[in-house]
Amino acid sequence: MLSLTTYEYQVRTDCDLAGTTASAYSATQTFTTTCTCSKPTNITVTNLTQTTATVNWVGNVCAYQYRLQYRKQGTTTWTTKTILAPIVTKALTGLTANSIYEYHLRTDCNSGGTINSGFTTTTTFTTPLRMEEVDNTNASTLTVTPNPCNTCEIIGTANPGDLIITDILGRKLNATYTKSSNGFYINVPESNKGILLIRNIMTGEVVKFVKE
What we know:
Blueprint: E1 2-9, E2 29-35, E3 41-46, E4 53-58, E5 65-72, E6 79-84, E7 89-92, E8 100-108, E9 123-126, H1 131-135, E10 143-145, E11 152-155, E12 163-167, E13 176-179, E14 183-187, E15 194-200, E16 206-211
Antiparallel strand pairs: 1-2, 3-4, 4-7, 5-6, 5-8, 8-9, 10-11, 11-14, 12-15, 13-14, 15-16
């Protein structure tokens, strides 16, 4: 627990209703309120473009600063940004299009960060494709058939674990796959209709298709 604010207080006895007859005040005493150096909550990513993203969160009254770390998935070095409280947002720039980024946050409750909340669970966001990348799909060894499709089948040699399905803005969809005779059927929520993209994270291949 951390000290937040120290208060002074003193007490006297009133011997009539108006307080005209009263004792002297007692010696001044103190008490201190405390708070917990807790992790940021309600973390969201907004303003997502091919090269930028904004991370937002709900902070803590004990915070001196926040520490945000992010990196492109598959790399080992974190980029660290320090944000002084009470600011609870950070714009990231210089990102790479069509890429998955990992990130997490912590609360530092002193200037050196020796008192901190520990990092939140690492999560991800995906930057969108550049439009020229979306249109350049002819070289892919993956095929979606039929296209447009309602029951969409992937034909090719890809492992489903290497595939990511996104909408045209690069937002990752919760897709699952069912084995077919020629490959795999793509299963996405009914609400995700329109132009979708399949990206093979092992080869970099991208296929555009229309889900009806």
